[in-house]
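TEACHING EXERCISE
Course module: macromolecular assemblies
Task: Read the component lines below, then compare them to the predicted structure of the full complex.
Student: A.B.
Group: 4
Components provided:
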Amino acid sequence: MKASILTVGDEILIGQIVDTNSSCIAQQLGDQGISVCEMRSTGDTREAITGALDELFALSDLIIITGGLGPTKDDVTKHTLAAYFGATRMAQHEPTLRHIKKLLGKRGIALGELNQNQALVPDTCEALLNLAGTAPGMWFEKDGKLAVSLPGVPHEMEYLMANEVIPRLKKHFSLNKIYHKNIATAGIAESTLAEAIAAWENALPPYLRLAYLPSLSGVRLRLSCYTADAHANIADEVEAYLRQLQPLIPSCIVGYDGDTLESAVGQLLKARGATMATAESCTGGRIAALITAQPGASAYFKGSIVAYSNDLKIRALGVFRDEIKEHGSISKVVVEQMARGAQYALHADYTVATSGIAGPDGGSPGRPVGTVWIAVATPDKVTSHKLNFGGDRERIILRASYSALNLLRLALTDDGNAC
Amino acid sequence: MKASILTVGDEILIGQIVDTNSSCIAQQLGDQGISVCEMRSTGDTREAITGALDELFALSDLIIITGGLGPTKDDVTKHTLAAYFGATRMAQHEPTLRHIKKLLGKRGIALGELNQNQALVPDTCEALLNLAGTAPGMWFEKDGKLAVSLPGVPHEMEYLMANEVIPRLKKHFSLNKIYHKNIATAGIAESTLAEAIAAWENALPPYLRLAYLPSLSGVRLRLSCYTADAHANIADEVEAYLRQLQPLIPSCIVGYDGDTLESAVGQLLKARGATMATAESCTGGRIAALITAQPGASAYFKGSIVAYSNDLKIRALGVFRDEIKEHGSISKVVVEQMARGAQYALHADYTVATSGIAGPDGGSPGRPVGTVWIAVATPDKVTSHKLNFGGDRERIILRASYSALNLLRLALTDDGNAC
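Instructor-supplied answer key:
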């Protein structure tokens, strides 16, 4: 079964918002063995939507449409779908109207016309009650093919996918699974990684496909088996290949599938019953935000001191004023004192500290924008690294944050063979 | 002139990565008056790419293609383009080869075959030297239409767009400007906003189009003038409409065009010569990260104490242990003490503090997941608000962070008419 995804909205075509819905929908379909053959974004005009539906139905059996269902008048999707799927009138969806009234009542807002109209759906669709918002989803069938229209607000789309769309797809179709295995790596460049594992990659059987997915946190490898009737023991087979891969890139493998640097650090800390904290200058709280984005982080994360000013590095982290005077705040000695100071101030077993120049200003010939010192303190010792990152401010901050997490991960695995 | 954007890569179709390139490209084209009529993502097979090129050339004069040019072997884009654009052979692009050698030399890596191949391009294209990476861009012309292929790594694509593609487009075409004006709002729901400004919106002339773009930080309004020959005085005309809009939603307008909550807070602080700091529990450093993502934040941002543990709230922020015992850490009195404590501990004029339950665990019937207390301390007083956010952990953390920034913004504007 093939699917396609259609995103409707001028705000996407002019680049004002990034379409995150399509990747989320593709993941959920992929988990059910439904592969996506195309994604499109088109403007919110009748012609564009109708044309896209015609072309996507020619390619696929299922179209998931998002966007164009908000309460305001820049939305034409619903009326275009009504015409496309031969509706004779708009019908009130009573469960949606009751839900909207209840929702507004809670907030003490009277039911306005805009919200009332959201309960109207074409009479040829099955309405999907949206408990995460006000606009209902719409399920259309035509000539044995399906189109499902969902609101563009991400958490509303996610609610409807999980609670209405996926369960209905499971009921209607017997689905083949696609097998994917992801390997998260850190601290190794794509081309270095490719050369290190070339022999292993070339020996993979033809039904296993390998992809390299670089990102700021590291290169993710993805092994996919697209065979319609994947071997019953494909998981075991892949495990055997992974056992061969591991020694080729020791200490670069962060984890598998949903694992990330931040979740790997959390797992290592929990396994040791240890705690961590951060002392951040140039990363400005980003490392703490990455760590605390993990559910259950309070089990191992004590907190952070974001010390943007030298004054605060001295008072809150115990850095010596004289060291800052002599070496500058972006130096080995200062970043190591920050990491040590955070262990004391925040009562943590492990800490990471950062100090650098995120730019765009503040660089100098000997110390350009992108220069970052990172220190890791463990119960045994403190070590530090001077790194140079390219790119703009956002990129430098994120790469420094991920590098700090990777250095902490390596300290927690006690592995000297750092990538 | 119409453009379309084609993103190549299975990693997008399976939802593993979010396509951020398309929105970035669309913005840059839009700034030059080139409107994008369609975006597509397709798999990295010869058939899919060729089919997409045929269909997109039927719709548009320019196709910007990203992805499928990395050093590793999962890329087929370059060879498909060579065939599509009638190349007879692959030619070495000497500036690219010199650049790759220099780049690898700096890192002490020998030139491998994978990297050497990146300097090969179809002989029918003009190669675009990529100083941000190794894979060159490729500029093809066919039957008076253009296709430009760029690497998928975002900062490499951005480099080539800014330094090679846009300058060439400007030289080749006389471009009409599209006029956009963005109004960033905060603290007001989309439907409430729509009803508050309905009369104003209905009185807009037909050549001005209004769109509502909701996000976690607030609803952005976008006024667009698509007329090919936009009035010379369109900017003045829009200014006049904005003056009418302002009193309809007092204190909800954060700023215009590129302004955001975090940049608005920065501007207000700089105008007052004042400083700020944060004391974060449930937001885990996210507010500090948002603030420090702004270039020049060190002029007004002192730092942050991320106090995940009660122990740290007591020691670092001076919260009374007895208050935590009596009221719990998610309470008015504790969050106000945190904000006050941060003023003293971080020597800041203004502070925001957060304490709440980001979930998924930790909720109770009387205090569900999503309950967040936010306090703002100014030199004059401390105030606090209890808010309830829906959604998952990430959403709750971000909404709490943006709400905190908006409350700080309102405190800095001394405006009692909070939305």
